[in-house]
Amino acid sequence: MTLTTEEFVSATKQAATIGVRATARIMAAAGGGTTTLPVLDGDGPFELRRLRSRRNEARVCIVGAMSAPLGGDRLRIEATAQQGAALHITSAAATVALRGPTDQPATYDVQLTVGEHAKLQWLPKPLICAAGSNLRQTWSVDLAPTARLVLREEQILGRTAEAPGHVITRLTVRRGGRTLLDQEAEYGSGAPGWDGPAILAGHRTTGQLLVIDPAFEDDPLEAQLLGEAPEDGQAVLTPLAGPAVLVTAIAPDGLRLRHLLDTAQRASRRPSFR
């Protein structure tokens, strides 16, 4: 079928408005003393690769197959560690949110489900919010009472010598059907006070580390301030009722942010995550 010029322009505009729709699905199952991956399915910008397993842990790397997220994109990752499984998810490179062909924000939703006596580690590379980008990112986590989780996220607001994009993030965690943590943050153009002294204090990178482990019930951590000089970045380790630990960090660049979060992860590590 041949389209007229008007039909072609209309179709192009509609595609730009819609953006890319893509969902990646990962499922880990325990069996025979190891963890298998019965579901490993990615489309659009998500290419999923199996990595060499470690002990009984299955490992998956998310590889970006195209530029995303762009304005108007609707992206989603669903990862499940079934009862007794151990799953580690990382990414091959940083995710770069870019300006798209539409003013609509991009959405990037992550749904994590961890069953009884299962363990999931979500440890991707940073998210870079380039100038002109507009992103809504959510994590929705559902844990069984005996589940263990390490969730790490890093955000770099703007590439070198450019203004940041706009990003809103929401993290909701439920353990045993009860809400453990529900928080939202907004950074970049249009967000009031985001770079002021009460939030990022002029820094351009921020990140979080959430560790949930039943071991904290008998051996809780104390609150800690990490980082010697505010101008080089600092992190706060805060125990949560749950049992859990939340680390929030800010730093002038990605390297120093990563150092702070690495330090915090070592401080919060329990034998079940070694």
Task: Fill in the keyword field for this structure.
2 helices, single chain, 11-stranded mixed β-sheet, mainly beta, 274 residues
Give a written overview of the molecule.
The protein is mainly beta and 274 residues long. It has a domain of 181 residues. 11% of the residues lie in helices and 50% in strands. Strand 13 and strand 14 form a beta hairpin. The radius of gyration is 20 Å and the shape is globular. The N and C termini lie far apart (59 Å). The relative contact order is 0.11. Belongs to the UreD family.
Structural class: mainly beta
Q: Give the helix proportion (percent range).
A: 10-25%
Please indicate the percent range of residues in DSSP E strands (runs of 2 or more): over 45%
Quote the distance from N terminus to C terminus: 59 Å
Main location: cytoplasm
Family: Belongs to the UreD family.
Function: Required for maturation of urease via the functional incorporation of the urease nickel metallocenter.
Subunit structure: UreD, UreF and UreG form a complex that acts as a GTP-hydrolysis-dependent molecular chaperone, activating the urease apoprotein by helping to assemble the nickel containing metallocenter of UreC. The UreE protein probably delivers the nickel.
Summarize the entry for a quick read.
The protein is mainly β and 274 residues long. Helix content is 11%, strand content 50%. Strand 3 (46-54) and strand 4 form a beta hairpin.
Topology:
Elements: H1 5-18, E1 21-31, E2 34-41, E3 46-54, E4 57-64, E5 74-81, E6 86-91, E7 95-97, E8 106-114, E9 119-122, E10 127-129, E11 134-143, E12 148-157, E13 166-175, E14 178-188, E15 205-212, E16 224-226, E17 234-240, E18 244-251, H2 254-268
Parallel strand pairs: 1-5, 4-6, 5-8, 6-9, 7-10, 8-11, 9-12, 10-12, 11-13
Antiparallel strand pairs: 1-2, 3-4, 12-15, 13-14, 15-18, 16-17, 17-18
